[in-house]
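Reopening this one. Same input as before:
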Amino acid sequence: MRFSTIAVHAGQRPDPHTGAVCVPVALTSTFAMDGIGQLRGEFEYARSNNPSRHALELSIAAIEFGKHALAFASGQAASTAILDLLKPGDEIVATPNIYGGTYRLFHKVYDKYNIKISIPTDTTPSAISNAITKKTVLVWGESPSNPLLDLFDITETAELIKNFRNEKGVTPLLVIDNTFPSPVFQNPLQLGADIVTHSCTKYIGGHSDVIAGAVVVNDSELYEQLKFYQNAAGAVPGPLNCYLLQRGIRTLPLRMKKHEENVYKVAEFLRKNSSVEKVFFPGFTDFPRHELVAKQMRGLSGMVSFVLRGNIENVKNFFAGLNLIILAESLGGPETLICHPATMTHAALPESERNKIGITDNLIRLSVGIEDADDIIDDLNNALNSVVV
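Same output, byte for byte:
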């Protein structure tokens, strides 16, 4: 089946007992047994599994063209499940300018377990592979990255990684955070990645009303390791959250096309505005490694970042001048959201580290929604007119 059909139907067949077209919300914490060790069905306790979560995991695996998916209570809980694969002394190679929450998890939580993080100077496959050592267990990347939308060649990187064996005699696993492009526009498992992770809070949910995460893999042994952690640690989404995510998946292809249509118009407007110093948008033909959009993606989401001219006061005045666009954390909802990465999404990074990778006080990240593009542009234009350059 083609993607839009998969999004509507995978994991969402009518309920065999009632005929309900939408998967029922299984609001129960436990399931009756017919005797000692005799399950009535495949469910025993809702932390271990739940019909609503099971259906969602089938849906997510299908839209990522993977064999197995696991749902978690948040994107960070999903990332933590992957990091549980590590042991003290292991190392991670992470691409530059990853999400600030991931950076915080690496440096503020896993440092105490003697797990080293190496970040190469750029996202070329050679730079990434040069950072791999005998202790590297995971290579962690975002493409496009948050918030500067850097691209790196997932397939070439995966091929280079195959040439390495760590001191355990195994090849490091390539982990791709696919939150920004969503499964509509990129499927890293098909490009050579071993693990795909999502903050489902964003485009997959798509309505700014649910927190959740997911991990998708093809390898069954790896799945069993992650499944054990999911059950043991228990950071799972509730059944209502699973229902909301499945509802979002059914319209995901339609929404992503509208996000993409709008972001091209907004990015062009920003590039032509005299108050904007620089625009980060992979859709521009002069964007670094723009050719990767055609090579490994089917389109772009609603993300664009830009640098405002002037000082921090200009940034504050710009935010104050917005009316339609909402200053808030997160992205991927129907409404256009704007954020200040230096003080919001990437506040966990030391200022020196932020400046080194380009997350300056004048950098602004925009999640373009599905409103009329002209209304979004009008609001940006009015706010930019209040900026003194």
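So the earlier flakiness isn't reproducible anymore. For the record, The chain has 15 helices and 14 strands.
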